[in-house]
Write a structure and sequence with these properties.
The structure holds two protein chains of two kinds.
Chain A (H helix, E strand, L loop, with lengths): L1 H33 L1 H21 L4 H19 L1 H38 L2 H13 L3 H9 E12 L5 E6 L8 H19 L9 E4 L3 E7 L3 E9 L4 H22 L12 H6 L3 E3 L8 H37 L3 E9 L2 E8 L5 H4 L11 E7 L5 H12 L5 E6 L2 E8 L1 H10 L8 E3 L3 E3 H15 L2 E2 L11 H21 L2 E9 L7 H21 L7 E5 L12 H4 L4 E10 L7
Parallel strand pairs in A: 8-9, 11-12, 11-13, 15-16
Antiparallel strand pairs in A: 1-2, 1-5, 1-6, 3-4, 4-5, 7-8, 10-11, 14-17, 15-17
Helix pairs in contact in A: 3-4, 5-6, 14-15
Chain B lengths: L1 E9 L5 H10 L12 E9 L4 E9 L18 E7 L4 H17 L4 E6 L11 H9 L4 E3 L8 H14 L1
Parallel strand pairs in B: 1-3, 1-4, 4-5, 5-6
Antiparallel strand pairs in B: 2-3
Classes of the chains: A alpha+beta, B alpha/beta.
Bound molecules: guanosine-5'-triphosphate and magnesium ion.
The site of guanosine-5'-triphosphate (GTP) has 23 residues of chain B, from α1.
Chain lengths: 579, 165
């Protein structure tokens, strides 16, 4: 027995000797395989690498994991919705914003369309077209501006022809989709039966008119029919094809066993709506030449009108300013009534119409009515003017104004001078006058005549009242002078008294000489009266030889004292003074 | 909402179109406009349990020149065979059509509408004949598209049968 045991032990020993190392290795491996913790630890080390490797080789991992992930999300939402909500909330905001923005953009776009096209000539044409064809205006606008637009999409169960889902673009009014889809199926059946087509041949496009067509894509159990306006790009078909494949993949069984319940297909609604594409024609905004012309004409007219208004305004203001600056005028108000200007104010009558009325070229268009009340302007210019008008000074007189004092300078006749003195103060605006610089023409003439007369001497023969030779001429000259004086004196309102003084030489007695001299004076007096000079202002006197006219150094000199001289007195009428 | 396709089948001028129009639009016209191809109508039927959208394919009537196309029958959940009570031959046509339907799309719920009941005095079809059919399990309704008699019933009975199946 022991031998056996020994033998057995010996074998073990031998085994130990031969494969001890390997045995230990195997035991270790066994332990590793048995202990799930160890295995898990090891897999966890290589798992990330394995996943990335498999992704590179075109992996199935996402597909395999998808149900798991779906399930775990479901569980997570069920157990703790908070976590998911927090996780997706950052993405939610922008998403909602984007959706709202795109909806708004769509609205603005369509609004833009209608507004853009409502007011153009094109728009009016289209309105007429809409009226003629009994279509909505918006529809006509779309028709002309779209390259294409997918108006409706039907998802149709092929076998029954029943509509599974149906989507319509915004404002399209569609017929009952079931009827349309039924007819669509029937038409296809009819065509297929009638033309004995090959298996797999299907109708792909139906056309109505020039711009509307139906695109049909066939799947095994369902088909997509898209009602399209315009000319869509061919890749749209590919899109529908892919959509159809997706639908078959997701709901193939439901389609196959379809029993009239369309509810399960509502999940494709969103995807179908995405297929409602449209693309707009870029409208070249060419303004029609007629419209452009009208615009230009209107523009020019308004520019011209504007310039005109500006000009008349400007000239009106300038005119008004001129009136306001015009002396002798006080503009109280200026108003525009019914396109006509009315000016109210005060006007000095001396302001001439020509100074008032719009005269200049720029003022020609001004239509104005005046409402003046007369007044007296106390402007120096006007006082002076008024004075000139009142006084009517002769051309030899110049009238000046300094302050309120009027002064006249130059020569004038007595009559005018008197008028000046009398009326100067009655002129409005004049408080005093100065006549010192007026030379009285009449007085001057009188003075000159008096002077002349004073120088006249008439000579007589010795001891006689007979003239010496050549005195007649002097005598008649004296008569003329006296007549002149006579005339002038009444003009200047002065009384002149003329003394006819008789002289004698120194020979003879004083008594005789006095007598002789008086006689000589009397002779002249009589001669004057004879000549028609009134006697009242002539007084003959004899003064003998009291006033010596010339020194008598020789007998010849005596002749100078046998003479008549004249002495003239001024007697002011008013004062009675004698000059 | 459940949608079901049904077909109106029968000889020409039996009143298929008239029945549908009476049922869907409540109108009737004495004028005869033969149907070319298919007319499709839709109507909602209310039954005790369910509301059903019926898509009615009103097919052209069969005559010696024109057989009904099998392709129109595809996907139908029920059929109404319309017989003109005043013409005996139309019953045979209806029965033939039923055989055709059974062959192409399998046995399908159906009812037999014997129409123009308002002209019952001119009928060529015996009552006993119809009773015989009824005993065989065929649901027979005597309808009049003109008066509207039993029209509603015809459609509702078919729907009932379809939903039972
Ligand atoms: N008196 C009477 N006339 C009917 C009735 N139903 C239909 N008719 C008349 O029968 C004629 C044919 O009716 P339709 O409904 O057009 O017949 P249909 O079966 O549709 O005919 P097809 O389409 O040609 O196959 C018409 O003139 C109808 O007025 C009915 O119930 N009573
Ligand atoms: Mg008909």
């Amino acid at each position: 027995m022991s031998q056996k045991i020994d033998k057995h032990n010996g074998l073990d020993e031998l085994k130990d000797l031969l494969i001890k190392e390997e045995k230990e290795k195997i035991q270790r491996i066994e332990r590793r395989l048995d202990d799930p913790m160890v295995r898990a630890k090891e897999i966890s080390q290589s798992l990330p690498e394995a996943i990335s490797l498999s992704l590179i080789n075109g992996s199935h991992i996402p597909r395999v994991l998808q149900p798991v992930i779906d399930e775990s999300i479901k569980i997570s939402v069920k157990n703790n919705p908070e976590t998911i909500a927090t996780a997706i909330s950052p993405a939610l905001g922008p998403g909602i914003r984007k959706a709202i923005t795109s909806t708004l953009m769509g609205m603005i776009q369509s609004l833009n369309h209608v507004v853009n096209h409502s007011f153009s000539i094109q728009g009016i044409k289209w309105r007429f077209e809409a009226f003629k064809s009994h279509k909505q205006f918006a529809e006509i606008v779309l028709l002309h501006t779209l390259v294409y637009r997918v108006e409706q999409i039907f998802l149709i169960h092929i076998n029954t022809g029943i509509v599974l889902e149906h989507v319509v673009a915004g404002d399209i009014i569609s017929q009952d989709p079931d009827l349309v889809s039924g007819m669509l199926s029937a038409i296809q059946d009819f065509v297929k039966d009638s033309f004995q087509t090959n298996a797999g041949d299907e109708i792909e496009t139906l056309r109505m008119g020039s711009d509307r067509s139906i695109w049909i894509e066939h799947g095994e159990h369902a088909m997509i029919a898209a009602v399209i306006r315009g000319n869509p790009p061919l890749d749209l078909r590919i899109k529908y094809r892919e959509l159809l494949e997706e639908i078959h993949m997701k709901s193939g069984m439901t389609l196959e066993n379809f029993d009239g319940d369309t509810l399960p297909f509502s999940i494709f609604r969103k995807r179908l709506e995405e297929g409602l594409e449209f693309k707009e024609k870029k409208m070249q905004k060419r303004i029609s030449p007629l419209l452009a012309c009208i615009f230009i004409i209107i523009f020019l007219i308004s520019v011209m009108w504007g310039v005109n208004v500006f000009k008349t305004r400007k000239s009106w203001h300038q005119y008004l300013l001129r009136l306001k600056n015009q002396k002798g005028l006080i503009v109280l108000s200026a108003q525009k009534e019914n396109g006509k200007y009315h000016i109210y104010g005060l006007r000095d009558p001396m302001v001439k119409d020509a100074q008032l009325l719009p005269g200049k070229k720029s003022e020609k268009n001004i239509n104005v009515t005046f409402n003046w009340k007369p007044y007296c302007s106390l402007d120096p210019e006007f006082i002076l003017k008024r004075a000139n008008r009142f006084l009517k000074p002769p051309s030899t007189i110049k009238i000046n104004l300094s302050g309120n004092i009027i002064s006249a300078m130059g020569e004038a006749h007595q009559a005018w001078i008197e008028k000046f003195r009398k009326t100067a103060m009655t002129i409005p605006g004049i408080h005093g006058f100065n006549d010192k610089m007026i030379k009285n023409i009449d007085m001057n003439k009188l003075d000159a005549a008096v002077k002349k007369l004073a120088a006249v001497k008439l000579y007589f023969q010795s001891n006689s009242t007979k003239f010496i030779k050549g005195q007649e001429k002097i005598l008649s000259g004296a008569v003329d002078i006296i007549k002149k004086i006579r005339k002038l004196q009444s003009k200047v309102k002065t009384n002149i008294e003329i003394l006819i003084m008789g002289h004698t030489d120194s020979s003879g007695s004083e008594r005789v000489n006095r007598r002789l001299s008086l006689e000589r004076a009397r002779k002249i007096f009589n001669l004057f009266i004879f000549q028609g000079i009134p006697p009242d202002f002539l007084t003959p006197i004899g003064i003998g030889n009291k006033i010596v006219l010339a020194k008598e150094n020789s007998t010849k000199d005596r002749q100078y004292n046998r003479a008549i001289t004249f002495k003239i007195f001024y007697k002011n009428l008013k004062t009675g003074q004698i000059k | 909402m459940i949608k079901k396709k049904i077909c109106m089948l029968g000889a020409f001028a039996t009143g298929k179109t008239s029945l549908v129009r009476k049922y869907v639009h409540s109108i009737f016209s004495e004028k005869y406009h033969t149907t070319v191809g298919v007319n499709i109508e839709k109507v909602q039927v209310h039954t005790e349990n369910d509301d059903v959208d019926l898509i009615i394919w009103d097919l052209y009537g069969e005559d010696e020149f024109q057989k009904v196309r099998a392709s129109y029958l595809r996907g139908a959940s029920g059929c109404i065979y319309v017989v003109d009570g005043t013409r005996k031959a139309t019953l045979a046509t209806a029965l033939n059509l039923k055989k055709m339907v059974d062959n192409t799309i399998g046995s399908t719920p159906f009812i037999l509408a014997v129409n123009k009941s308002d002209l019952e005095d001119q009928w060529e079809i015996d009552m006993s004949l119809l009773e015989g059919l009824q005993q065989k399990g065929v649901f027979v309704v005597k309808t009049s598209a003109k008066t509207g008699e039993e029209v509603k019933k015809a459609f509702q009975e078919l729907v009932k049968e379809m939903l039972c199946k």
